[in-house]
């Protein structure tokens, strides 16, 4: 069946061919031509598993965990030694799962990364509220972590209970965050839960900023087809009103919009593992996007360790980008930061943004999705809403399908999107 996402893809890519991902078993990776490379490390273990969560994760088991971290360190050696000398990278982000469950071995992992890479913009890690304890935070800080992102979801019991998450005590968080400080303290909330009002969101945002956060991420709830527990999401009209009121509120208060879904109380605070031009991923389900290819690692912890122990890369699927596909992928993820810089585009692709996308830029301006200043593109409030709208389509049509497949098959033969 031909879907709306297929139509948008055909119009933008100007080709009827689907995106074809194949299973390539390679032993080397070349990222020498990537000037602003980010690193990502995935730790797929949690104390307990939440029904609404789509990420690659499983319940913590000590033996599996030890074998996994040994394999992860070997993957960093394997990929790190593909480059001669130390490679300068922007940042390193730990995601999961609950990566702070590896607090005891974070220093060992970061030291291994530092053997091959020079990190210039800091190291971030996702925390579950249960990880916000002085002993854990001190270990993370000693290992070089500069940014933390805490998964609150909501301080309000009526919303956290919909997600079957325990309630979070803000005063306890405030006390611990006051003892061990980080450059960025971000807090994650979920947006558009059934019955959520603007006052509920204001309460969450103000509580976060008053207890030590300087950055918040408000993620729209996504109901993945394979999630164990269904949560009814808000209808489109209500969502639009809520998103506009939330954006107005951030503006009135003088907070800084850092991306579609993130806001900060000071300009320097930043937590963004998403809007990178190129990135290299390590661990189960970690993705890699280079100038000419996209790879995603297997979702199976067992098969991941088996592959690495035989010194093979754990890549499950690879897409070799066609030139226009790569440009669209670039535009999609950089627009997430609300701005597309024409010089950065030219530096990356060696061609003008306006030569390649002049018609689409004009069309987006006429629709009121973007404005331009000095040739750079800026998303408007309307543009941000529609970006979110297409992002949801993209997530449900592409990511849902890819992750759904990879949850069932460790190394599929092929996938067409
Ligand atoms: C890996 S978790 C964060 C760290 C930690 N595991 C925790 O749960 O607090 C990343 C974030 O993804 C978001 N998330 C998870 N499932 C989601 C869904 N179905 N829709 C939207 N956001 C989701 C949550 O805000 C969560 O904090
Ligand atoms: S939301 Fe966090 S704790 Fe819950 S399953 Fe997902 S990664 Fe684990």
Describe the 3D structure.
The protein is an alpha/beta fold and 417 residues long. The chain folds into two domains: 1-20 and 328-408, Arc Repressor Mutant, subunit A (Orthogonal Bundle); 21-264, Alpha-Beta Barrel (TIM Barrel), CATH 3.20.20. The chain is 41% helix and 22% strand. The protein is built from 13 helices and 21 strands. The chain has a nine-stranded mixed β-sheet with strand order 12-13-11-10-9-8-6-2-14. It has a three-stranded antiparallel β-sheet with strand order 15-16-17, with no helix packed on it. A three-stranded antiparallel β-sheet has the order 18-20-19. α4 (134-142) links the parallel β8 and β9. α2 (62-80) packs parallel to α3 (103-116), α2 packs across α9 (301-309) and α3 (103-116) runs parallel beside α4. It is globular, with a radius of gyration of 21 Å. The mean pLDDT is 91. The structure holds S-adenosylmethionine and iron/sulfur cluster (SF4). Iron/sulfur cluster (SF4) is lined by residues 46, 49-50, 53, 55, 57, 96-98, 128, 151. Residues 46, 49-50, 53, 55, 57, 96-98, 128, 151 line the site of iron/sulfur cluster.
